[in-house]
Amino acid sequence: MSLARRIIPCLDTDGEWVVKGVQFRGLRRQGDPAAFAARYDREGADEIVVLDIAASRDRRPTFLETIRRVAESLSIPLTAGGGIRTLDEARAVVRAGADKLTINTAAVQRPELLTELANEFGSQAVVLAIDARRAESGWRVWVRGGDESTELDAVSWAIEGARRGAGEILLTSIDRDGTLSGFDVELTAAVSGAVGVPVIASGGAETPEHFLAVFQQGLADAALAASIFHENRVPITTLKRFLAARGVPVRMDQVARTADTC
Amino acid sequence: MILTLVDYGAGNLPSVERALRRLGAETKRATSGAGLAAADAIVLPGVGHFHALARALAQGGLGHALRAEVDRGVPLLGICLGLQAFYERSEESPDEPGLGWLAGVVKPLPTGVKLPHMGWNQLERRGPSALLAGIPEDAWFYFAHSYAALDAGQEVVAVCDHGVRFVAVIEQGRLYGVQFHPEKSSAAGAAVLQNFLELAR
Q1: What's this model's pTM, rounded to 2 decimal places?
Q2: Is the confidence metric ipTM above 0.85 for this complex?
């Protein structure tokens, strides 16, 4: 009996369609978020993240409708985010069916937002998304989808975010994102060892070994990936069996059921 | 059969509604004690801070109305914070009493483990359970909380562990409660909700 390490497929969308970009650039459409989410639910994903990476004002109603469609058939938790700046926008996302919210740029601009969100929805619903890039020493926080650097140190910002009410950290390595060279294990371990809240590692996953490393050496509580799942290069069932065989606690009952029907 | 959900603004109410409808249940929402009349079964959802729920239950006699329905034989399922409300009080909000239907106090989970206790965990069964009937012993359930009841009375049919053993499932007469979120717990969670629907028939 112990808490399972979570495998989380991420649906990066333009508000409506799942899109793919390398190092936050060069978007191309990959499919319907609701169809992807339903498939991952069946395959034993532990949670789904859906992000509006365009996050443009006038496309907001479209993204809310996307959240609604994804949530409708989902039997596992749903996290949504991208461009949430105010309490009202957060309420709309929760009402649409998200169990948790990710906050990124808006929290850097106004850290009190984390506390306001935690007071309204509970810390367990507030996920601080941090996009980090290696600097001369340590890692720097970047905002606006990785376009703009800040003065913040990623580890210090994670500690402050948790203190202000974030119940989880979604930690993306910009250096690794889309490179298929594996998670930034060192970054993940530095953040996970410094905060008392769960840390989701993101950016760079390509093989089951990458997941094993980020759980074992990176101390990640969950690991997130997009294209390897979308393109079925590493099926979730295969990944979980691989991890379980190497002593990583993962939720397997759903996996077993899926296998029976294959 | 109509399943009534207590609506006091809990974030997970729509999720619970969707999960029950997927099982074919007809649901309605009650915002006050009066709305509970003619309920065949009641769900008290909850996620977030104890004080929001404690205040809602104290207002307009909602807590008393719930008790009256349970005494009338209507099954009541408390989810997460909904279960915590059954206890005397919670250290998350010491000034606002809980319903006091179960002996004990809701306490913070210990430091030294990651909090919130967020994700999928397994249960340790303590006795026969109607809610868990037919569900494999090693099934996984989704948790998202930092507080829990630690006192184990006769009503506790399953516990979980995250830094400390805590109450995961209670059953006492027509009173049922789960600390995890069945509405988010995939097939195992759907089976718990299905079992609860059977109890209401």
Answers
A1: 0.95
A2: yes
